[in-house]
Each structure stands twice: as structure tokens, then as C-alpha cells.
Amino acid sequence: MRALQAGDLTAFVTGLQRESWLLGEANVGFQVGLIERAVMRDRPEFITTLLDLDPALGRTQPPPRTGAIEFALTYAKRHLIPLLTRVWPIPDDLPHAAGMGDLVRVKQWFDESGTPALGNLDHHFPYNADTGMDYQWASSRVQSVLDTALAWSVINRHFNVADFLLEHGADVNTRWGSHEPASILHELVGQVATGENPSGNYESMRFLIDRGIDMTIKDYRWDSTARGWAFYAANDQKMAEWLEEAERRQIGGAG
What we know:
Structural class: mainly alpha
């Protein structure tokens, strides 16, 4: 774990080869944890190396539970998913289709009138019974599924999918967040602050702003706008000033 955190691939491999029992059936949970951490740290070489060592994880059927694919879509690391699908298939639901940018499949979750036709809501992340996750960002579970799909499509820059979802019931002002109620704009800023996406999310933020997101939304815990997160959490004055200017233009345009 320390080697993975530090990005020391040599120590990572040496440790697993020395303690080969960690690759056995009794430690599948540990192996899953390694992959989840590698996703969060954006370390594809660690995922590939672990799977090439033939861990029991790769032979377990059905595959063990994991949040790895969800982490990849939530934190703009979709490029890791081809590695993850060596073990786990991508769930067939609306949010995952949206996060993957599969507009054809996204449209198949709506009927001819454009109304969501989701079937059993427990089938859709974050309401999948296997994960036990339920963020409850909205009182309506259908709305929450739509808003999760919107968030993943925006974070992963699938703007054609995001526009379709906005036209079919998703809420640009959803209080969706990866940890607690805030907004998708907060999430994008927060990923810069925590290092999940240090290069920034300006394109995705601009998309939301151009679609009229309410920039005065405050988060649940700190009672702060996304601009406040940029200034105090991300310590990014340039981003804070950019958001402030965008809010002024938005207000001016509305006037």
C-alpha cells in the first residue's frame, strides 16, 4: 500500500512477489483495495502489474464487489476503465452509459416520448443492491439517477450526452456530489483541490455555466459556493477569479 501511494512500482512488485500469499483467494479483498487505490491515484501501471501477477481476484466468479469503475467515472479517470474491465464488466445502467459517453445506449433508457424508462431503479447506480450505495441527492430516485448520469457525463466531458440528459429531465442545479450534497460545479473544483484532477476542469465548468447553473449554490458542510472552494480549498486564486468573472457575466446576461 505504501509503495502504491508513493508511486514506487519496483517496491510494489517486489513486495507482492516476496509475499505471494497476498495474491491468494484469502486476500481478494486486499487485491480489490489495491486496485481502488490505484484508480484514485491514477496509477495504471500498478493495475496492469497486479493483474499480470495472476491474482485470485482475476479468477473469482462472479467478480468481487468494488467501487473501482465508479471511482474512475466520478474522478475523470475513464482512461483506466479498459484495465478494470479485465475483471469487472461495465454495469448496464443509465449513469454508466452516460459516463462512458455511449449516447446510443443512453437514449435506450428513455421511451419514445422522452420519458425515462429505467425499469427497476435498484438496477441503476447509485441504487444498485450489490453496492449498497444510496447518496439520496434528491427526493426522487428517478431524478437522482438522471442527475448522477449528468454528473458523470459532464465530469468525463461527454457534452453531447449531458445536453441530451438536460433536455430529458436532468437538473443542472442538482445537489449531486461524490461525498455530500453540493453541486457538480463544486465537485469539479474539489477534484482540483484534492488532486484527483489537478489539471483542472475548466471545459466542464464552462459547460455548466453556459447551461445556466446557479453559481450561488452552497455546499452542505461548509456553506460555501464553488468559487469559495476554489479560493479556500483548492487555494487556486486564478480559478476563483475565473469563476467570479463567469458569475458576473452570467448575471449580466440574465439581466
